[in-house]
Amino acid sequence: MEFVMEPFMWLGIVALFLIIEAFTVGLTTIWFAGGALVAAIASGLGAGQAVQWILFFAVSVILLIFTRPLAVRYMNRGVERTNVNSLIGEKAVVIQEISNLDQTGQVKVGDVEWMARTESDEMKIPEKAVVVIKAVQGVKLIVEEVKEG
Q1: pTM more than 0.85
Q2: How many angstroms separate the CA atoms of 3 and 143, rounded?
Q3: pLDDT tens digits for range 77-101
Q4: Rounded to an integer, what distance in angstroms lies between the CA atom of residue 92 and that of residue 113?
């Protein structure tokens, strides 16, 4: 007895993937729902088992590879960075000379003092200099001096 994938079975798989996506909201199974929908259409048009499975996998992989990055970018657009990530790109004032080799450096961002380091061990940034925050590593801000001119 051969197992045959009817259009309604594929539509059930579509529904299953959509339910999983609704609970996870991770943009992971939605692409497979698209592949199953194409396979359901192919099944309804009389395509064979092999064609249905090939379409399911091919469409799922194509959607996953080519549309997921766009969808993630679209969904994350306008999302405000929170906590320490919101500091990236902000300016700060050096309140203690920054020297990676000497293990020194502090900056003030608003009313909060942070330990600061540079990306390069050879670089020193003097007190009262203005810096821009490039990254956050644990409790340290990685900064770069703002060059006037």
Answers
A1: no
A2: 62
A3: 665 555 667 788 889 999 999 999 9
A4: 10
